[in-house]
Design goal:
This protein is mainly alpha-helical. The protein contains two helices and two strands, in the order ββαα. This is DUF1289 domain-containing protein.
């Protein structure tokens, strides 16, 4: 795996600074391109937990 894919699903709406589409904070979204692979994986894991807490049931947008 050469890179960690950006989890954005083009549903950028925020609930207490957390995007309800991808589960990342505004700070994490802004920093995404500068993060190394390990940091991106950490953000993805934390984002997944946040989405569970938000009760997210959305689906990834087809591109």
């Amino acid at each position: 795996m050469s890179s960690t894919k950006d989890p954005c699903i083009s549903l950028c709406k925020f609930d207490d600074d957390i995007c309800i589409g991808c589960g990342r904070s505004k700070r994490e979204i802004k920093a995404w391109k500068k993060l190394d692979k390990d940091d991106k994986r950490t953000v993805l894991a934390e984002a997944a937990l946040r989405l569970i807490k938000l009760g997210a049931t959305g689906r990834r947008k087809k591109r």
